[in-house]
Write a structure and sequence with these properties.
Elements: H1 11-17, H2 22-44, H3 46-55, H4 59-107, H5 111-116, H6 119-161, H7 163-170, H8 173-210, H9 212-217, H10 221-273, H11 279-320, E1 338-346, E2 356-364, E3 368-374, H12 379-384, E4 394-399, E5 402-403, H13 409-413, E6 416-420, H14 430-434, H15 443-452, H16 456-460, H17 479-493, E7 497-501, H18 509-523, E8 527-531, H19 535-540, E9 543-548, E10 551-556, H20 558-564, H21 567-575, E11 589-590
Helix pairs in contact: 2-4, 2-6, 2-11, 3-4, 3-11, 4-6, 6-7, 6-8, 6-11, 7-10, 8-10, 8-11, 10-11, 15-17, 17-18
């Protein structure tokens, strides 16, 4: 089984995340060291400015020192801008690459993971959790370099001026950083809960936008608004908990900083009064100490950012550690002989009962196989195993004698086309949707496929023809039009194996007739498995397979099964009154 590596949540692991961008980071670090040196220089200049200008009244220094300070501020501002830009770009690149990695990983997950997790949850992980890391890199790591180097530079200045006062001033910092560390651990837990709450909001928004038609028709706007308000309020509470912890960090640093500076001013002031040190020495020292506590407070918040990043990384890892689809190594050649289900059992994850039981079925090349049975009999599950959306719990599926688990997913799925009742179209042009499986197809091939699917005429009536954007899920098309676009897509792909999953069951009579014509074109010279709905499809099938409770209970042609006087005949008599007319008394039966 493939083992997937997640994102390390240790500090060392987090540093490794930005390793690919080391050149930008190295330049940013160099700039931060220069900025820190300038900060130290500004503190150093306090003594000559105070003694030379205000006490000795040196006119040359009166012109030189202000000009030097102005130049240093300009340089510091320019370097600070460049440093911030570089670190922000590193953060943006990191998030871009993590989102690429997440999207790639998610698209290769087995179908069971999509059934177990909502779309909104996945969106929240890729958008919100990954996006949070940019703030950490752009601000926390930037502060770690800049403010850390600044603290060191200013501490050196303070030590040179008065080492004894520096030790007194800095003895309070360990207590502060210990308190901040404790708060940071709490912040990590709160951050994970905050991200969980925003996931709930994203899930609700996704479900609302996808189901807005049903929400309106059932008049559920008000209950959903109340639910959204509740989830939004829950997020607000968690967000404010995180804010309190972050601000408590500032409060601790202000308390400790004020305590240290107050004592230093009292003690240092006594030394000045007693003549032990000059006012210039003292104010140069006190400037350095004042300047130390500001970056020290920012360093304390760096820990908060790192703890919040750990919370986001842990949530991202919940996806990245999931195993991808198991891929084989062989290339599957085009179907030549048959598809075989041998002793296939299947149960869905977290289910105690089998959806399929002891399925033994042979489908010869060119056959049209119709699957019939009540809802829940296992028809869709049986066809979902063929493109390996799921793998059998027991047994094997063979194509020309090769276990499909031994072949590459790409070579397997290239041979299979699917047209289902639930048509999946994309918010793109008609042309792009038809060419989805063959993006290199020519315009002539796309038009030919549309003609074969009886779609060309209505496409040409659209505002921009084949360049018309059809909206999300093809919302600007009718049900029959969406289905014919889907069929044109399958025709263009030209797969040797075709799966039709109740492709006409939700259409009106006219649309169903047009779609059935398109399906007849699509089914020519292909091996076809149909979850049957129309009587005409059942009658043209090479073989009808009757499923009940996940088992094959009958097989044969229409006439053969009618003579058996078994389940097929019972289903047939329930559903069909005359010819192809579908009765609606029993909604739980599909033929």
């Amino acid at each position: 089984m493939e083992m997937n590596r997640g994102l390390s949540t240790s500090l060392k692991g987090m540093v490794s995340l930005v390793k690919p961008y080391w050149q930008r980071i190295a330049l940013a670090v160099l700039l931060s060291l220069i900025v820190s040196a300038i900060n130290g220089g500004l503190a150093w200049l306090v003594k000559p400015a105070l003694n030379g200008i205000f006490i000795e009244k040196n006119r040359s220094l009166l012109m030189f020192i202000p000009l030097l300070i102005f130049v240093l501020y300009i340089i510091r501002g320019a370097l600070g801008f460049a440093h911030s830009y570089l670190m922000t770009s590193v953060g943006a690149k990191l998030v871009r690459d993590i989102r690429n990695r997440l999207y790639t990983h998610v698209t290769f997950l087995p179908m069971r993971h999509y059934n177990e997790r909502s779309t909104g949850l996945m969106l929240s992980r890729i958008i919100n959790d990954a996006g949070y890391l940019q703030k950490v890199v752009a601000h926390s790591i930037k502060d770690l370099f800049v403010e850390g180097a600044t603290v060191i530079a200013l501490t050196i200045v303070a030590f040179i001026r008065r080492w004894d006062l520096t030790i007194i001033a800095l003895t309070v910092l360990p207590l502060a950083f210990y308190s901040v560390g404790r708060l940071g651990k709490r912040l990590k837990r709160v951050t994970k809960e905050t991200q969980r709450k925003i996931s709930g909001i994203t899930e609700l928004l996704t479900e609302t936008f996808n189901g807005i038609k049903m929400i309106k028709v059932f008049g559920k706007e008000t209950p959903l608004i109340k639910l959204f308000e509740k989830r939004n309020q829950d997020f607000y509470r968690e967000n404010m908990r995180a804010t309190r912890i972050v601000e408590a960090t500032s409060l601790v640093m202000e308390f400790v900083g004020g305590l240290g500076i107050a004592f230093v001013i009292w003690y240092g002031g006594r030394l000045v009064v007693e003549g032990a040190i000059t006012p210039g020495d003292f104010f140069s020292f006190i400037a350095a100490i004042f300047m130390i506590f500001t970056p020290a407070k920012r360093l304390a918040k760096v820990n908060n950012g790192i703890q919040q990043a750990k919370g986001s990384l842990e949530r991202l890892n919940e996806f990245l550690i999931l195993d991808k689809e198991m891929d084989g190594e062989k290339e599957l050649a085009p179907l030549e002989r048959s598809i075989q289900y041998k002793g296939v059992f299947f149960k869905y994850p977290n289910s105690d009962s089998f959806a399929l039981r002891d399925i033994n079925l042979t489908i010869n090349k060119g056959d049209i196989i119709a699957l019939v049975g009540r809802s829940g009999a296992g028809k869709t599950t049986l066809v979902d195993l063929l493109p390996r959306f799921y793998d059998p719990t027991e047994g094997v599926i063979l194509i020309d004698g090769t276990d499909i688990r031994d072949v590459t997913l790409r070579s397997l799925r290239e041979q299979i086309g699917v047209v289902s009742q639930d048509v999946i179209l994309f918010n793109d042009t008609v042309r792009a949707n038809i060419a989805f499986g063959r993006p290199d197809a020519t315009d002539e091939e796309i038009i030919e496929a549309a003609r074969a699917a009886y779609a060309h005429d209505f496409i040409m009536e659209m505002p921009q023809g084949y360049d018309t954007v059809i909206g999300e899920k093809g919302v600007r098309l009718s049900g029959g039009q969406r289905q014919r676009i889907s069929i044109a897509r399958a025709i263009l792909k030209n797969p040797p194996i075709l799966i039709l999953d109740e492709a006409t069951s939700s259409l009106d009579t006219h649309a169903e007739m047009m779609v059935q014509k398109a399906l007849d074109s699509l089914m020519k010279n292909r091996t076809t498995i149909v979850i049957a709905h129309r009587l005409s499809t059942v009658r043209v099938a090479s073989k009808i397979v009757v499923l009940d409770h996940g088992m094959i209970v009958e097989e044969g042609s229409h006439d053969e099964l009618m003579k058996l006087n078994g389940m097929y005949r019972h289903l047939y008599e329930i559903q069909f009154a005359t010819g192809d007319e579908l009765l609606t008394e029993d909604k739980n039966v599909n033929i």
